[in-house]
Amino acid sequence: MSTNLATLLKEARSNSGLNQEQLAKKAGSQLTANDISRAERGLDVPSDTQLKAIAKVTGVTQKSLLDAAKTARTKTPAAKKTTTAAKTTAAKKTTTTAKTTAAKKTTTTAKKTATAAKKEDYTLTATEKKLIDAYRSASSENKKLALNLLQGKDVENSDASGIGAILQNGLSSGLGGVLETLISGLGK
């Protein structure tokens, strides 16, 4: 057998008749088939605990794997540098994504707070609440007439028949009473 860790791991696994997934399951130690693949390609060096678990499953000596790992760790192959760079890039992307997401959430929360603050500027009186309730339950024709009346616009040729039409249409929720109160208040 070779003293190169990658080759040693691949030969040990092959000689024991296991594929990478089977070895990962039997070895445990939080190993995945991907970890074994990367180690067999010389991209990563498993921890000593993981190497000991692999040795037990494959029947090779722990010393042979640990010695090969020690040698692999002292060398700084380009693959190791690439892996570190990839991990750093992934970490930066994750951080950037997290910052962007947090900024979006903060902006959304600020917008909602501003909207809520605008809504809080309006404190309604009991009469205003009655008007709103009556308006919401009125027919579209009665809504137009009531809105025109409240805005001081010509309500059906400015005669009493316009106001009478509103009152006769029997708006629900007491709009007639509210309008009578408003009209009587205008005469004072």
Please provide a written account of the structure:
The protein folds into three domains: 5-75, Orthogonal Bundle (434 Repressor (Amino-terminal Domain)), CATH 1.10.260.40; 82-117; 126-186, no CATH class. It has helices at residues 5-15, 20-27, 33-40, 48-58, 62-74, 78-120, 126-137, 140-150, 160-168, 175-186. The model has no long low-confidence stretch (mean pLDDT 75). It is mainly alpha-helical and 188 residues long. The protein is rod-shaped. The longest helix has 43 residues, at 78-120. It contains ten helices and no strands.
- How does the major sheet shape up? none
CATH topology of the largest domain: 434 Repressor (Amino-terminal Domain)
Beta content: under 5%
Arithmetic mean pLDDT: 75
Helix content: over 70%
Question: Which features would summarize this protein structure in a list?
Answer:
73% helix, 10 helices, rod-shaped, 3 domains, 188 residues, single chain, mainly alpha, 434 Repressor (Amino-terminal Domain)
